[in-house]
Amino acid sequence: MPAKDLFHDNVRKALEKDGWTITADPYTLVWGKESLFVDLAAERFIAAEKENEKIAVEIKSFVGRSKTAELEQALGQFSLYYSVMKRTDAERKLYLAVPDTVFSDLFEGEKGEIVMSDERLKVFCFSAENEEILKWKR
Predict the structure, then answer these.
(1) Exposed end of the chain (fewer CB within 10 Å): N or C?
(2) One digit per residue, pLDDT tens: the chain, 138 residues?
(3) CB 33, CB 87: distance < 8 Å
(4) Domain, as residue range, for 115
(5) Could you tell me the CATH number of the domain that includes residue 107?
(6) pTM value?
(7) Residue 62 · residue 99 · CB < 8 Å
């Protein structure tokens, strides 16, 4: 079982505050004979559509020396999880959760346009301090 991210509990609480029910912590994907672990899985009932919205969340703190190097690793991990989920749990949407302190630098503006041009990538930013979700980019 992998170690929890620095902001794991903050994101979990933020999702719960936003009306999500955590259904797995971590969420296990089976890839051949190996298991992959996405940080969280959650569901939320949408009354208007009378169905559940399902998400999986990979949390990244970006506290290392190079945000670019961490972004490269996060996008590779996201791509692998996305590919596996597409075949095993296609109705669940995969999100990358990032702290608000790095969101604008990496996922908005000129850099963000490039990163977010991949239509598969879905991101939300959170306030670790207030334990709340601030912005979704779908």
Answers:
(1) N
(2) 678 899 999 999 999 999 999 999 999 999 999 999 999 999 998 776 667 899 999 999 999 889 999 999 999 999 999 999 999 999 999 999 999 999 989 999 888 889 888 778 999 999 999 999 999 998
(3) no
(4) 8-137
(5) 3.40.1350.10
(6) 0.93
(7) yes
